[in-house]
Each structure stands twice: as structure tokens, then as C-alpha cells.
Amino acid sequence: MVAWADRLAALGAVHPFDYPYMAAGRRRPDRHPVLLAAHLAAIDALGADDIVLVGKSMGGRIGCHAALERPVRAVICLGYPLVAPSGKVRDEVLLAQRQPVLFVQGTRDPMAPLDRLDAVRAQMTVPTHVHVVPTGDHGLAVTRTHTRTTGRTQEDEDRAAFHAISAFLSAHQAQEAAR
Predict the structure, then answer these.
(1) Sign (positive/negative) of CA torsion 74, 80, 85, 88?
(2) Helix (H) or strand (E) segment spanning residue 148
(3) Is residue 143 a contact partner of residue 134, using CB atoms and an 8 Å limit?
(4) The CATH number of the domain where 103 resides is what?
(5) Quick one: CA dihedral 16, 17, 21, 22, positive or negative?
């Protein structure tokens, strides 16, 4: 996320934070209420409502929960964990969203097969977009075969995802200004 924070700083102020378990150096994530409380506290500390939440994996999922409780402009999920380890589809928070959502997903991500994500998106009532990272896994890492056959490096694919994020934000900012 440090590299993504650096990239995203070109689009505006970035305010990263750590969940309590990360700050304490633990590997096991805190329970949902603790994660959500930390996310809400980070939002509240900004004192603004024109923010965009960006999170990787669990951070994107908790960001979606936080967006239901605080006014935000949009949510960007990098590798959304749609399918729990148990196989349960975690779509309730997505179906409840009230602001635009961008998913940046890899084609090899077992936690969000694109067909399952598309099925959930079809039920969502807010504008959604997907940027697909070819051969990307849950961490959005592409394969060496992809790089060898296409000539596109990890940096190239990350740059493409950044441009998709920038375009998504510009499009939704223009829509808001037109209202």
C-alpha cells in the first residue's frame, strides 16, 4: 500500500493509516468492529466529507462498510475479497453502497472471480467500474509469463490501474459538478 499511496498522491492528498493489529505488529487481523472503528476514526480525523476511500483487500471491504457510515465521494477497492475462505460471497456491503465503486481486480484472484464480481455488480444500484489486471493475483501481481508474452511489466500494469483510478475519479467528479 505504500507504493499505491505514493502513486495516488499525484491525484490529491493521501492519508494512510494502520489498523490496530498492524500497528501492534500482529499478523492476525482484529475483529470487524475494531477494524471498522479504526477506519471511521481515520475518516473523522480528516474532518472532511469530500474524500475517496482506497483500500487493498480487507481494507477495501472495511472501507465499503465505513462508506455506509460516513459521507465519502467514492470507494476504490484494490483486490476486493468478495469470496470468504469459507466460500461465502460477501456482497451485502456492496449491495448497500450509496456512492460509486471502482474495483481493481486481477484475473487470477480466487477471492474475486470476475464472473462472480460481475454478478454482484449487476445487482448494485450505484455506478461501478472494474479495471482488470491481466494475470493479476489477489495482490494484483502479474505473472512472468504475462510479462514475457506481452512485454508489459508489473509497473506497466500498475500504471494502467492508476490511470483507470484517475479516469474513474475524473468522470465521477464531472458528474457531481453537473448536478
Answers:
(1) positive
(2) helix 144-150
(3) no
(4) 3.40.50.1820
(5) positive
**Contact in structure between 136 and 109 (CB atoms under 8 Å):** yes
Q: What count of residues does the chain have?
A: 179
Beta carbons within 8 Å of 110's beta carbon, 6+ residues apart: 83, 138
Number of folded domains that form the chain: 1
* Ordered DSSP codes for 61-112: HHHHHHHTTS--SEEEEES---B-TTS-B--HHHHT--S-EEEEEETT-TTS
Note the pLDDT tens digit of each residue in 53-93: 999 999 999 999 999 999 999 999 999 999 999 999 999 99
Is the model's pLDDT at 178 over the cut of 80?
A: no
Q: Which residues contact 76 (CB under 8 A, 6 or more apart)?
A: 52, 53, 54, 55, 60, 101, 102, 104, 165, 168
Other CB atoms within a 10 A radius of the CB of residue 26 amount to 11
Supply the range of the domain harboring residue 152: 2-178
Matching residue, cell 495516488: 8
What does DSSP assign to residue 125? Answer: S
The span from the CA of 121 to the CA of 17, in Å, is: 28
